[in-house]
User: Which sequence fits this backbone?
């Protein structure tokens, strides 16, 4: 049943997407490292790597936090993740509109810093209303990590000739950050409690935003109003 639903959903982009760059017809190398020689691209990948290590701390551990601190009962704690994911739906759509106006890298950098600050604000939460508000806000502002990161990979690239190889290499590196980030967070939690976990996630996510801003400067110059 799920397979048929996914197939039906995939027909929507298949119907409306257009080919923007035609294939060259030339045989490409199995391994092409030219894309990794671009400094702005490498900086961007490093930033997003750190971001994916920290950004999923809240979705994985907010329910445990609520129960451990006796902020909510099990019924409300169960709904914290759906609230976060529901808000994330809007965070995956609305920022895309502004990214077309002000630039993808600008939006990713801003939303990553805000997401990191929200994780740090999570430290002071001690009641159910604030925790629900945190989940809604964090879900929205962390949304661009799902929808805009691939576009940011292209924006940080200097050459369309190797952008396909860059996407593959970029996601391979980013995937490692996503893979190890949450288990490391669990180890931090076991050793330093929720305060250590929140600092871990918040500081990594803020660092992600700042590094993405540096990659934008390296690629497009120091003007903060440059659409990039």
Assistant:
């Amino acid at each position: 049943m799920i397979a048929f639903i996914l197939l039906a959903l995939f027909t929507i982009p298949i119907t409306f997407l257009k080919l923007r760059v035609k294939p060259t017809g030339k045989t490409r190398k199995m391994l092409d490292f030219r894309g990794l020689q671009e400094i702005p691209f490498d900086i961007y990948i490093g930033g997003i790597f750190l971001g994916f290590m920290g950004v999923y701390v809240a979705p994985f551990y907010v329910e445990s936090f609520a129960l451990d601190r006796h902020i909510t009962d099990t019924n409300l704690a169960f709904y914290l993740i759906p609230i976060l994911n529901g808000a994330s739906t809007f965070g995956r759509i609305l920022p895309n509109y502004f990214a077309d106006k002000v630039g993808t890298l600008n939006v990713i950098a801003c939303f990553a810093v805000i997401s990191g600050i929200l994780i740090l604000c999570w430290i002071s939460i001690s009641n159910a209303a604030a925790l629900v508000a945190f989940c809604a806000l964090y879900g929205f502002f962390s949304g661009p990590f799902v929808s805009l990161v691939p576009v940011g990979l292209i924006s940080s690239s200097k050459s369309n000739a190797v952008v396909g190889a860059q996407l593959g290499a970029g996601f391979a590196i980013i995937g490692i950050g996503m893979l190890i980030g949450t288990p490391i967070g669990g180890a931090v939690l076991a050793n330093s409690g929720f305060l250590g976990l929140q600092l871990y996630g918040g500081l990594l996510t803020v660092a992600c935003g700042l590094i993405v801003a540096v990659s934008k400067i390296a690629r497009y110059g120091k003007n903060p109003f440059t659409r990039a």
